[in-house]
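the two lines:
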Amino acid sequence: MKPLILVTNDDGVHSEGILALFEAMRTLGEVYIVAPDRERSAVSHALTLHRPLKAELLRDCIYAVNGTPTDCVALAINKILPRRPQIVASGINRGANLGDDVTYSGTVSAAIEGTILNTPSFAISLVGDSPFLFESAVPYAVKTAAYILENSLPYDTLLNVNVPNITPKEIRGIKLTRLGKRIYDNAIKEVISPRGDTHYWIGGGQHFHEHGEGMDMQAIKEGYVSITPIHLDMTNYEALEYLGRTWDLNDGQGLKGN
Amino acid sequence: MKPLILVTNDDGVHSEGILALFEAMRTLGEVYIVAPDRERSAVSHALTLHRPLKAELLRDCIYAVNGTPTDCVALAINKILPRRPQIVASGINRGANLGDDVTYSGTVSAAIEGTILNTPSFAISLVGDSPFLFESAVPYAVKTAAYILENSLPYDTLLNVNVPNITPKEIRGIKLTRLGKRIYDNAIKEVISPRGDTHYWIGGGQHFHEHGEGMDMQAIKEGYVSITPIHLDMTNYEALEYLGRTWDLNDGQGLKGN
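prediction for all of em together
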């Protein structure tokens, strides 16, 4: 039986990027799209709990859901797909998902939900501005999925793939990277309403990312595809040890009841 | 000058939990609330980019924003507060934020945004069901904030505090913990609309959390307050090393252009 691959995104079921990923994954297996009915960027890892969701079959193997990317993955795996998928593939996103951005990203959150549901998952994004060269990302989506089908992924870990928005020939190869840091630049614009009161619009400024040896943004800058393994256990084990040494948690009384 | 403390949450500015936290923090410094105008649970780390936001002064030092918890922290630190805060405190949430739930949580995402903006931050939640005993959480909010004011926090790290919803006397002490795993139980209910078509409602089942030595849920079960240090760098460094050894990324050709 051919491997089953779930494709989703946060730009919506009608986006060019998801169709490119759909065709790419069809070279490897049986593919379903279950994706938001419209753009759901920056919704992060939201699950819709306050209302029921509708999954509309648009055409063979392509479903539109009136919810978030995370909703789509949960519905697909638990209700829509004929069997468990071997891979959740999210993208191809129009724009970067680098560094701390991954905590906001709808594209990455779909891969996080896949991982929580014990399915090896990856997110793939084009770093740059319109026009997006989806054909540049396609070979790296195929390569990543082929690796996962052969090797699976380490426990609790997804792959975050970013591809520079340059021509296929200009791409110099792949680098494995760590997440960089977003550097915040006070990107809030003040706007005055017709009634004269001040509103705030987030996103007025530019995003910066720290560059540094081994960081995702650095690889992109140099013309490489960046692949970062991300795990869901956000526990800071070093800090756990440090706090245990330095914080007298129970006021010198030890733990009550012990 | 008294330390400045920002209080926010995802249950909304009018919730009982945020007022309990406001009063608790006032024992330590000058306190502002900048919080969503209504409940914004499960919005995760969403930033509102598609429309301007309004910050309404309700009364002295208390602002309501028509956006997400993350929006509130970004607006507060960059636009509303008279100077940089020493702490972002998020809560007191009605309900647990344990294990993988932190990737969904509006309460925790406010503390994540505080951390990204270089402000030591913590989230505090009551684990249980209504009626919520906010007075049980208050001493642990104060204790956590006092520790942060004295010691700050490790780089890129926030504290996720969960308090069992039992009486103050029943709480046995504090334990430092690691994040557990959510165990998913297919919690999607099918509902039929008046027009006869099937919809899906997420949340129909129960959430389970893995219990185990040192895990957050285990501490709660035993009647302790759980404090988990969480860092934002989700890079899986072990997997990075493993993939580097096992994945012939560039098809034996090395990196192009090197």
